[in-house]
Amino acid sequence: MRITVIGTGYLGAVHAAGMAQLGHDVLGVDVDEGKIEQLANGHAPFFEPGFPELLRNNISAGRLNFSTSLKQAAEFGEVHFICVGTPQRPGSTAADMKYVDAVIEGLVPHLQRPCLIVGKSTVPVGTAARLTTKVAELAPLAKVEVAWNPEFLREGFAVNDTLHPDRLVVGVASPEADAKLREVYKTILDADTPYISTDVATAELVKVSANAFLATKISFINAISEICEAVGADIMPLAAALGHDARIGNRFLSPGLGFGGGCLPKDIRAFLARAEELGIEESLAFLKNVDSINVNRRRSAVNLAKGMLGGSLQNRRITVLGASFKPNSDDVRDSPALSVANALQRQGAHVRVHDPEAVENARAVCQALDYTTEVEKAFEGAELTLHLTEWQEYRQLDPNRLSALVTSPRILDARNTLDVDRWRAGGWTVRAMGRPSR
């Protein structure tokens, strides 16, 4: 099948390569000429394990090409996937739909034959219905249907999530659209992947509901973590005990610094904004607390750091381990780690940040901080170290060796993934969020 993927950011680029891997002829389209050139030459514009190989293999096989022309996309494709961003609207908590609308306005007038437009972007419920009206106005003679197929990619696992998803959800208005999407995903469906076909509004709601639930679970355990800190209890065995309850489960029940990235924070805010537009904001009022709890964990980390340094951050040398919002990613959008690092710097600390992959992206948005890609250099002269992104390599650090590099061997584990006993045995004073101090 001939497929276009419009928008070649994180979602779109991985989806385009994934569709090519499934055997389709794919054209990736973006207005960013530099990004298109980079992708066409087989270079990944972001860090994602397994993606560079997937990209190059399918370019070499002739199944994957790139363009900046929506006219070419219209002439090429039977199915057009919309994968552009829906960021938070400036001055508002609502989603900014200008990029999605721009795709429709640029693509649809060129459509001359029956085709299916499939949204994958995370959007406010009602978007597909609105776009269906717009498509009918722009191409009244073409048989064009709008469907929705939400994405559930996890950064760091996006290739596997594309090729081996735990479920496929499609929102369609006709049996023909459903049949077309079954054809697109035939290889995946042949592996007995659950397939949920529903109406477009329900499909739109699935993604934002999933994100709202996950955000709620993360903020819940972090709220309990705050209580543990207040009374001297230990969040780790508490979370483990909850996780053994089959009704709760242990996934997304890891206490620490909270969530960030380009999805969860802006999606729960946009969900709230849409509920307000619909006049049902009280139904989702709890998401305001979910958001505030998440933001408050960053303040708590700064306050714990200040306490470990005697109450003042002025002119103190602090090392921060991690800049990306999560491990196995170079994404720094709404990164809790960078948020904390910036707050420390604003209160007078000299902050040096290390990250295995995200240093350049972090430097582009936070120039006031000092950065290094050499982990031992990051520790030199530090009076306090903060572990803020749970990269695997940080778990493997040798505290005995590092203690000789720092001015004072003190560390705050804000992700609760370090071996606290091992670090203490290495001579370090260790605090961990939600856990008793010694």
Describe this structure in words.
The chain is an alpha/beta fold and 438 residues long. It has two domains: 2-198, 3-Layer(aba) Sandwich (Rossmann fold); 200-438, NAD(P)-binding Rossmann-like Domain (Rossmann fold, 3-Layer(aba) Sandwich). It is built from 19 helices and 14 strands. The strands form three sheets. The protein has a six-stranded parallel β-sheet with strand order 3-2-1-4-5-6, sandwiched between helices. It has a six-stranded parallel β-sheet with strand order 11-10-9-12-13-14. It is globular. The relative contact order is 0.09. The mean pLDDT is 96.
Backbone CA Rg: 23 Å
- Quick one: CATH class of the largest domain? Alpha Beta
Number of domains: 2
Q: Tally the helices: what do you get?
A: 19
List how many beta strands DSSP finds.
14
CATH level-four homologous superfamily name of the largest domain: NAD(P)-binding Rossmann-like Domain
What proportion of the residues form beta strands (DSSP E)?
A: 5-15%
Q: Summarize the main sheet.
A: 6 strands, parallel
What low-confidence regions span 5 or more consecutive residues with pLDDT below 50? none
Shape by Cα distribution = globular
CATH architecture of the largest domain: 3-Layer(aba) Sandwich
CATH fold descriptor of the largest domain: Rossmann fold
What is the helical fraction, as a range of percent? Answer: 40-55%
Oligomer: single chain
| Lateral arrangement of strands in the main beta sheet | 3-2-1-4-5-6
Quote the average pLDDT.
Answer: 96
Termini separation comes to: 62 Å
